[in-house]
Design a protein that fits this description.
By secondary structure, the protein is of the alpha+beta class. It contains five helices and twelve strands. The chain is 23% helix and 29% strand. 34% of the residues are buried.
Length: 208
C-alpha cells in the first residue's frame, strides 16, 4: 500500500515482531511525521525521500551486535572509561533533516558540537558518526537511501556492520562523497575511525 489510510498495514506490522528488522518499505508516499507517530508500538518508522519505511524492532544477531558495539563505544568515548571520552553517544536516536526522518542504530556527536542531550524528542543536528547494523531486509535502505542523506548532512563517518559476515565497513566523508576506508572483520582487535584512539575487540561483537 503506497497511499491512503494506514489501517490495513498496521496488523501486518504488528505481526513483524518475531522477525529480525523485517520491513514494509515503502507503504506510504508523500509521508509526514504524523505517519511516523501513528505507527504501532514496537515499530520504527523512517521517512526517506518522502516515503515512509517501517520495520519491527531488531532481534537476534542484529540486536546482539548493535548492543555490544554500542556498549563499547559508549563506555570508552562517552563515559571515558578505558578511552578518551569527548563524545555523546545515543542508541536509535530520531534524526530530522528537513522532510527526512532517520533512525540509525547508534549515533555519536563530539561534545563540542552537542554538549548534552536536548529535551526535544528528536535531533536536527547531524551526528559526527552514525552506525547501521545490516540485516537482509534493510541492507538496500541503509546503503542506497540513508548513506546519501548522511553525506548530504555532513556526517563525518558511517559504519555499516554486518553481523552475519562479521565485518565492519568504515566510510569517511570527503568533499561530499563517501570514501571506503580501512574496515575490519573476524575477531582481531581493530582501531577504526573516528574511534581509533581505543581499539575495539571485534570477537565480542559476534560471540554468542
Amino acid at each position: 500500500m503506497l497511499a491512503g489510510s494506514n489501517a490495513p498495514v498496521l496488523p501486518a506490522l504488528r505481526r513483524l515482531g518475531h522477525r529480525p528488522k523485517a520491513v514494509i518499505a515503502p507503504f506510504r508516499r508523500d509521508a509526514t511525521y504524523a505517519d511516523v507517530v501513528a505507527l504501532p508500538e514496537g515499530v520504527t518508522g523512517q521517512i526517506l525521500g518522502g516515503e515512509l519505511y517501517a520495520h519491527a524492532r531488531p532481534a537476534g544477531p542484529h540486536l546482539r551486535s548493535a548492543s555490544r558495539l554500542g556498549a563499547m563505544i559508549l563506555t570508552r568515548f562517552d563515559q571515558g572509561l578505558g578511552g578518551p571520552g569527548g563524545w555523546l553517544v545515543l542508541f536509535e536516536p530520531e534524526l530530522h533533516f528537513g522532510s527526512d526522518v532517520l533512525v540509525p542504530d547508534i549515533a555519536a556527536w563530539r561534545r563540542e558540537r552537542l554538549p548534552s542531550v536536548p529535551s526535544a524528542p528528536f535531533l536536527t543536528l547531524a551526528p559526527d558518526w552514525a552506525c547501521e547494523v545490516l540485516s537482509p531486509g534493510t541492507t538496500r535502505i541503509d546503503r542506497m537511501l540513508k548513506l546519501p542523506i548522511y553525506a548530504r548532512e555532513g556526517v563525518g563517518h558511517v559504519w555499516l556492520v554486518d553481523p552475519i559476515e562479521r565485518s565492519i565497513e568504515v566510510y569517511g566523508l570527503s568533499a561530499g562523497r563517501w570514501v571506503l576506508g580501512e574496515g575490519a572483520g573476524g575477531g582481531e582487535p581493530a582501531s577504526l575511525e573516528p574511534f581509533a584512539a581505543a581499539p575495539l575487540e571485534l570477537a565480542y561483537l559476534w560471540s554468542e
